Amino acid sequence: MSLLEIKNLRVRVAGHEILKGIDLTIDSGEVHSIMGPNGSGKSTLAQVLARRETYQVIDGEVLFNGKDLLAMKPEEAACEGVFMAFQYPVEIPGISNTYFMRSALNAMRKYRNQDEMDAMDFLPMFREKVKLLEMDEKLMSRSVNEGFSGGEKKRNEILQMAVLEPKLAILDETDSGLDIDALRIVAKGVNAMRSKDRGMLVVTHYQRLLNYIVPDRVHVLVDGRIARSGGSELALELEEKGYGWIDGEAQATVPAST
Amino acid sequence: MTTPMKHPDTYLDAFHRLDQRAAGHELAWLRQLRAHAFERFSQMGFPTTHDEDWRFTNVSAIARTRFSLPHEGRGRLLRPELLPPRLGNPEARLTFLNGHLVRELSTFPQAIQVSSLKAELERSPDTIRLHLGRYLDMQRDAFSPLNTAFFEDGAYVHVTRGKVIEEPIHLIFVSASDRPIMSHPRNLLVFDEQCEATVVEEYISWPGEVVFSNSATELIAGESTTISHYMIEREHGEAFNISTLRIQQARSANVASHSVLLGGGLVRNNVHPVLAGEGGECLINGLFVGTGREHLDNYMHVEHASPHSTSRQFYNGILDGHAHGVFHGRIVVHKNAQKTDAKQTNRNLLLSDNAQIDTKPQLEIYADDVKCTHGATIGQIDDTALFYLRSRGIEERVGRRLLLMAFAGQCLERMSAGAARSHVEHLIHEHLSLIEPLPGEESEPVAVERTLEEVG
Ligand SMILES: Nc1ncnc2c1ncn2[C@@H]1O[C@H](COP(=O)(O)OP(=O)(O)OP(=O)(O)O)[C@@H](O)[C@H]1O
Ligand SMILES: [Mg+2]
């Protein structure tokens, strides 16, 4: 059984069809990358998988570990092991990062019938991950993402992933806006999470990140359809030629329905 | 504009009867103060919504209801275990029932002067005379005169020069009756130079009872004194609560007023600081949480009367159901009050389509070198923030509660750490759990059990 199976997924947002029949299968241990021009629907796909309710699924099916993902609420999907790093992480004044992460982890542990973690057990583990992402521990007692720089917000997303240890990690442009040092730190955090029990879907505009996180498969999303799929070399080709050449072919490409 | 009072004779009769037995009724100056106040009240009558200060709050239900003034020692005794928890230790705690001191439920400290106003009027009337009625504004509405005419008791606190009181002084005012009653608690809080203290006033009533509490507090903060004052109001849907806090600040005095309104049929909380001395600082911090058909009105009148004074108003409102909130923030900068720095912020969360907020800033600036800003926001629970929490595994209801707590937390953060703040935090948690119950919580019935018992 595959970790994630998306079949003919069609999604509408605010009256417009944005995803027009997506088919994608990810197995545990694999890293897939999705690339594509602005507005092609990459974040829409990520948000639908994280079960954002404003996106209306009009057709198709998504199985996560064989379970109907589209029937799940966001918190259920999260507790089942889906994690999405937000393209635009949200600021939440008044809730500290530490409190947020412990509440989140304990919500998941409760869902899995595990005992809740008290602060004594939680903090050493949390500190270790904070160190891995080379973040200032002082930030952790501050409100979630409030006053964080762009880079700190993105690293905070990866930190959350490291704490919550999902089965499927979806990274929505976690590399955008990062300088090369921050990019390396993020990549280090992501690579530390690569394992045979975990799948990843890395959404990015640039090949740059994929130098550090080498994907097993690359898919190109154009106008709501996967126009082309290939190995990691496809990313290089895109970097060189842009999306234009695929755009043309996309019209002729019939989405493979396996 | 005034309403013709429905029952002027009720108040007149009550006033004549009270005249014979009220605290300090043998003192000529006090009789005169009361007589003037009653006259003032009779002239003005209760305000109507044509009155600019009362545009959003209709008190005709107060005018319509025949409230009686309960006598001391009549009726019921409070069950101590149902009163709010002790704040700190050692402590001063005065408990009043329907405007009268309950001695058994009060503790008087040795180190500072905390007593009932009535007792103090007997013991040393001249001390009281120095302050009582000197500050309260008798011109603006009928409630302050009404209080002055009818008060029977309240707290008298005097902290002398240089004293630092670590633990809060807790004043509890309970209204309880099976028929409509009113009470007019009157507090006089006097702080000399360079002292520090915290006073908590807490007003409580029980579900279903028609009670009217009309309190007035005069707080005098001496030079370089640091005071925290808490007004906690947790009345029920049939209760009327009008409260007025008048703060007089001397040079470099620093006062924080925290108002926490957690329900009541009709609540009006007036906060009226006068920064009379140079370099004074005043924080006017508030949270109001309304549900059902509750009406919670916050009226601020901040007067800068001296140069270099600073005021900060921060009010957060949470309104659910058909609740109606009002924030009216008036800032007056007198002609000589140069370098005034006044700021006002009112944020509101509406949790239902039927909830309503009226927010009104009112700046009157007569000096030319001042900094005054104001801002108000009205919004719903942030969907994106809620989705963010849920996407990390946190249940929707827990997420909503966290966001409400975070919103209320902005007010908590402005309170100094200590027993008073912890108490308020606990009350807010408890109150928000009624609005946004978590799984398992809603099965526990809210305690509506009778909390008083007959004693004869
Ligand atoms: N909430 C929304 N309301 C209306 N339109 C939306 C909404 N979300 C997305 N869209 C539209 O859907 C389309 C796809 O958006 P999406 O964010 O999925 O693109 P993307 O591939 O992630 O783009 P980018 O590379 O810029 O992040 C765009 O045209 C966008 O304007
Ligand atoms: Mg996007």
Walk me through this protein's architecture:
The complex is a heterodimer of chains A (258) and B (456). Chain A contains nine helices and twelve strands. Chain A is an alpha/beta fold. A six-stranded mixed β-sheet of chain A has the order 6-9-10-3-11-12, sandwiched between helices. A four-stranded antiparallel β-sheet of chain A has the order 2-1-4-5, with helices on one face. In chain A, β9, α6 and β10 (199-203) form a beta-alpha-beta unit. Chain A is globular and about 55 Å long. With 456 residues, chain B is an alpha/beta fold. Chain B contains nine helices and 22 strands. In chain B, strands 3-2-6-9-11-13-15-17-19-21 form a ten-stranded mixed β-sheet, with helices on one face. In chain B, β2 (92-97) and β3 (100-101) form a beta hairpin. The longest helix of chain B is centred in the first third of the chain and has 17 residues, at 28-44. The radius of gyration of chain B is 21 Å and the shape is globular. The complex binds adenosine-5'-triphosphate and magnesium ion. Magnesium ion binds next to α1 of chain A.
